[in-house]
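Supplementary Methods, section 5.1.

A reviewer requested that the exact input to the structure prediction be made available. We therefore reproduce it here, unchanged from the version used in the analyses.
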Amino acid sequence: MVAAGRRPELRRGIPRRVVAVEAAQILVVCTGNICRSPLVERLIQPALDARYGDGALLVRSAGTGALVGEAMDERSAAILRELGGSPEGFIARRLTAGMVRDASIVLTATRAHRSQVVRLWPKALKYAFTLRELAHLVQAGGAAGQDRLQADPQDRVSALASRARALRGHHAPADPDELDVIDPFRRTDDIYAQMRDQVSTALPPVLLALGAVDGPGRK
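The structure derived from this sequence is encoded token-by-token as follows.
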């Protein structure tokens, strides 16, 4: 078991697990791909599966400095279970330009990650948002905007990205830090709780815009 706050270490002589690269319509990005982005991935995917059918929309995650081959951070995994998700089978992977290119929308933990995504694939400027930024834009746009989104799940993701991009210059929060999800890695339980609150507050409007009825922690 990995002690709380310690970075997992690879054992000598044991190769990292190979992580298959799948094209995802929704790509979630943080740093290590063991705390924030897998939490968001594993909350969004089952909600979309329940709405559209298994695999109709793929949600995957990756890290700009990923601990490749590692499972979820234990405290993030515990939060995921509390919110109704499962960390089983998760394996961290490193972000690539191809992943960004193939996505219809990219959700990042912070503005810095969003900038890194755009540096890898400049066209992603049109469809990369922080998670909390997208939630803010969806809420600022109002429910009428959600009604105009496409019924087809893949078209709905593309339409959401277009709509959010149009709103981006008109609905900025007063505090830019409200766009970021805090990094809990190697920090106290209070910081993990803060991350949990930020993610579970941001996800419901995003899931609503994607056509999923339930948000995290709701039946």
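Residues 110 and 180 are 4 Å apart (CA to CA). These observations are discussed further in the main text.
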